[in-house]
Specification:
By secondary structure, the chain is α+β, with helices and mostly antiparallel strands. The protein is 18% helix and 39% strand. The strands form nine sheets. Strands 1, 2, 3, 4, 5, 6, 7 and 8 form an eight-stranded antiparallel β-sheet that branches.
Length: 747
């Protein structure tokens, strides 16, 4: 039985169905007794607001799946991701002074994260519940009554997106709702936790993009590509490169990462057009893997399109409380992040003051109507500015002691010279109620680089204050763990370690003394070509050298029958020598075997062999003759959401004719046997020990891949009318039994 990460919770959906009518009754009461009076108090024109019909319908929300995190998180918390889908038939109608407005049906789906923390040793066992959506949820509303106008094409998209933005401002990361379950629970650090880190994305270049521009509907022109990069609600747009299918951008963007695991980097490419921009492909990168790998620099294939690759370099920056890391960056990149927790203000003035010679006096107002307006409490919001970036808080209506309770993040280039500018403004009169400037160098005097205090407001009343908590953290690029196998595609490219040793005039392969495989830098194209040439030379040297130099493992040659020994002594020798030149598997297997004493014995270990068999049996069972071996490297690349299969090579193949064989390898990911989804290597001429080193990818989710089987066959490329046997052997690998994230490399 296979247990996927995301579990179905039908029992919970049955509970929801039973409880939904009772929930509807509670909500109807809340709308009438709580919401209606609040709406009436908002504005003079809303005093006649009445809910005429409130019905939450028969259809209740459905939870399609739940994912529970246990490994990547703190021991004192429980993290759940709920995939929510609500296609409701609710009906809510409201009358406002003869106008009838209403909603008749709502569709909503998204991933809601629920964090239960801190876990306690006494009832109620959970201190608080925090809720938020990872990304903006998808929302569609069917309007009724007068608000039917909002269903007009064009307006409906705008109205739905306005409501989505309203939800995003309260319920989408970095915003969250925290409900305390225990009395006197301080929830400030739960509502506004320090972010997990920052990612710096270098958008370098793309190649082979799809042509989207066409002239007169026939002649294909070149496209004008640009990229949209997104993490959560933050989105940046690159510059547009004109008429180029291989654009070079060389731009850098920085994103704050609030939740890992959970948040992803999304990149969409578009072709800029005067009317409507054409979609050119997209990419989704898991930030968990970027966090673990520290730096990912690769070409990624674009999905949802026919061709195109995108070259990105993504760096993970940790937030550290270390002033030594705050040196100014020469390239103008950020060196620190400032987190501002905007709490509240006290004793804001009712109106703007006029200052002259340090004394203040109220403006003389002639208009009596304006004077009345000034008597009421201010509706205030705050503008926060660092450098050239300004962020705006929500508005608190009619209060001289407003409470905002919001968090903001700013990238800082020079903590020693930059300042935070705070301006409290009145919404109705667009006038400043007070200002404050905080030099970030004050934060450096505190060992924790934190200030939590009331700040006196300038250009305001003498007893007007604003309460804020400021936290400064340096951005630090950590070195990747040398022992870790990279999660990116470069992991599958990382070949075996080959060390050359000169003994007399022959070279031989030596197993490395310690399994530090991952320290080898990724091989460049030039060095790869050089390495393959060296390998070729050494193999020729080996084949030419005398047999006494090669102590052959008896099990390896046992596969060849006595008759073959007599008929083909040269083949026997070269294959045995080739066995000796076998390559050390990559890290996972090397660690597992504690490094076998010699490379020859590695090839002979039955646990590390995929023997090619003529039947459907996966492994040679001792009763029939093995047909050779194939070396494969298989792993799942989480960042690209793909299964990577590297076909290294075959050895000791059994010829199907005296003419010799031209072998190639065919791969299916069962049960899919369609001709279009099969993968095939190049053909190697006249050899029983072909070397391919070719990589193939299957773009499927890890959950799907775990249910599949790899079907790999070695075939002989023969003339169409030939009677020769085509299949030289095959092997099947059940992927549900393998640790694909770690990967394996085996013969």
């Amino acid at each position: 039985v296979h247990f996927p990460d995301i579990e179905r919770v039908e029992w919970l959906n049955k509970v929801l169905v039973q409880a939904w009518p009772y929930f509807g009754t509670i909500m109807e009461k809340t709308f009438k007794e709580v919401l209606e009076p609040k709406i009436r108090a908002k504005n003079v024109h809303l005093k006649t607001c009445t809910f005429t019909k409130i019905h939450f319908g028969e259809k209740c929300p459905r939870i399609n799946g739940i994912k529970a995190y246990t490994k990547e998180i703190d021991r004192r918390q429980v993290v759940l991701d709920l995939q929510i889908c609500y296609i409701g038939d609710c009906e809510i109608h409201m009358d406002i002074s003869k106008f009838n407005l209403g909603v008749k049906g709502v569709q909503l789906y998204g991933t809601l994260r629920v964090i239960l923390e801190p876990l306690l040793t006494e009832a109620p066992f959970i201190g608080a519940v925090t809720l938020f959506f990872m990304q903006k949820p998808h929302l569609e509303i069917n309007w009724a009554g007068m608000s039917n106008l909002l269903d007009v094409p064009g307006i409906n998209v705008m109205s739905d997106s306005l409501i989505q933005d309203f939800i995003a401002a309260r319920l989408v990361l970095p915003n969250r709702i925290t409900v305390p379950l225990k009395k006197n629970m301080n929830i400030a650090h739960l509502r506004f936790p320090i972010p997990h880190g920052v990612i710096r994305v270098h958008l370098l270049e793309a190649e082979n993009l799809v042509q989207k521009d066409s002239f007169l509907g026939a002649i294909r022109g070149k496209s004008d590509p640009y990229a949209l990069l997104r993490v959560g609600t933050v989105q940046y747009r690159s510059k547009t490169v004109s008429r180029d299918l291989n654009p070079i951008w060389n731009e850098t963007f920085e994103f704050v990462v609030h939740e890992v695991p959970g948040q992803d980097l999304e990149v969409d490419l578009y072709d800029e057009d005067p009317d409507k921009d054409d979609f050119m492909g997209s990419l989704l990168i898991s930030l968990v893997d970027v966090m673990n790998d520290r730096t990912v620099d690769e070409w990624f294939p674009l999905s949802k399109t026919t061709s195109g690759h995108l070259h990105l370099k993504v760096e993970w920056l940790s937030l550290v409380n270390d002033q030594e890391k705050l040196h100014e960056d020469k390239k103008g990149l950020s060196t620190a992040i400032l987190i501002v927790y905007l709490d509240s203000a006290f004793n804001l003035p009712k109106h703007h003051f006029e200052y002259s010679n340090g004394e203040c006096g109220a403006k003389k107002i002639k208009n009596n109507k304006y004077l009345k307006k000034m008597e009421r409490e201010p509706s205030s919001f705050v503008l926060l500015t660092v450098g050239n970036k300004t962020q705006k808080s929500k508005t608190c209506n009619f209060s001289k002691d407003p409470t905002w309770g919001q968090a903001f993040t700013f990238f800082v280039h020079s903590a020693h010279s930059q300042s935070l500018h705070v301006e409290v403004k009145d919404k109705d009169r667009d006038s400043a109620l007070g200002t404050s400037v905080v030099c970030l160098s004050h934060l450096l005097k505190d060992p924790n680089m934190t200030l939590d205090q009331r700040f006196q407001l300038d250009h305001s009343s003498s007893d007007s204050f604003i309460k804020m908590k400021l936290v400064l953290r340096a951005l630090n690029v950590e070195e990747p763990d040398p022992q870790r196998v990279k999660a990116g595609v470069s992991a599958s490219k990382q070949g075996p370690v080959r060390v050359m040793e000169k003994g007399g005039n022959q070279q031989k392969f030596v197993s490395p003394p310690k399994p530090e495989v991952s320290k080898v830098p990724p091989v460049s194209k030039d060095s790869a070509a050089l390495e393959s040439q060296l390998k070729k030379d050494s193999r020729e040297d080996l084949d030419a050298s005398d047999s006494s130099a090669a102590p052959v493992s008896s099990e390896t040659v046992a596969g060849l029958s006595e008759a073959e020994h007599e008929q083909n002594p040269e083949h026997c020798l070269s294959s045995a020598l080739h066995t000796r030149a076998a390559v050390v598997p990559t890290l996972p297997v090397v660690q597992e075997m504690r490094l076998a004493p010699s490379v020859a014995s590695l090839g002979s270990l039955p646990s590390s062999c995929f023997e090619l068999s003529s039947s459907n049996l996966d492994l040679h069972n001792g009763t029939e003759m093995p047909l050779g071996e194939i070396q494969l490297t298989v792993r799942y690349a989480s960042i690209r959401q793909s299964l990577v299969v590297l076909v290294n090579g075959c050895r000791n193949l059994v010829p199907s004719s005296n003419r010799g064989v031209d072998p190639y390898v065919r791969i299916y990911l069962l049960p899919d046997r369609r001709w279009t989804s099969r993968k095939k290597t190049s053909i190697k001429k006249k050899t029983l020990n072909p070397q391919y080193d070719e990589k193939f990818e299957f773009f499927e989710s890890l959950e799907d891949v775990k249910k599949r089987t790899l079907d790999i066959a070695v075939k002989n490329s023969r003339p169409f009318i030939s009677q020769e046997r085509k299949e030289l052997g095959k092997v099947r690998i059940d992927l549900s039994q393998e640790d694909l994230i770690k990967g394996f490399a085996q013969w």
